[in-house]
Protein: DNA-3-methyladenine glycosylase I
Organism: Billgrantia ethanolica
Amino acid sequence: MSHYCDLAPGHPWHGPYHEKEYGFPVSDDTALFERLVLEINQAGLSWLTVLKKREAFRHAFDNFDIAKVAAYGSGERERLLGDAGIIRNRLKVEAAIHNAGVILALRDAHGSFAAWLDHHHPLTKAEWVKLFRRTFRFTGPEIVGEFLMSTGYLPGAHHDECPVHRRILACGPAWYTRQQPGLG
């Protein structure tokens, strides 16, 4: 079985994501929301398709401004469904808008989306999936697992020998700091 670390280096789209983003801790709510929307949109498609459409997603979703997306009405929904630059799936568009509203509520209750994630960490992947299914829309096991791996809440983004893995460990992702005495 090939691993992302074997496939991504040197690739024009996967390479930069693998080297600079995948698995690194994310604490910014806008970046977390973007990653959640992208992972939801990847369902049934290749990650390459999503990476190629990433800039179009940023433009279409107002740079993932959570409050703006949460306030989208029928006009914005129709605009998104007509935008050939993104993945035009009604369930995915509705999930992004709904989930933005959920994140606003989580901010009110916990201070930020990141603080909500930190509040629940550590959980097993199965426990995370249950929590996300109760909280968000369109968040099955693959989406939740990839979202949490990609943002540093679950291990497994890189194999141990990957040079990026060592850089990630130096950043103290949540899954690692909770395992190390005196960290986290």
Remarks:
- The chain has a mean pLDDT of 95.
- The chain has twelve helices and no strands.
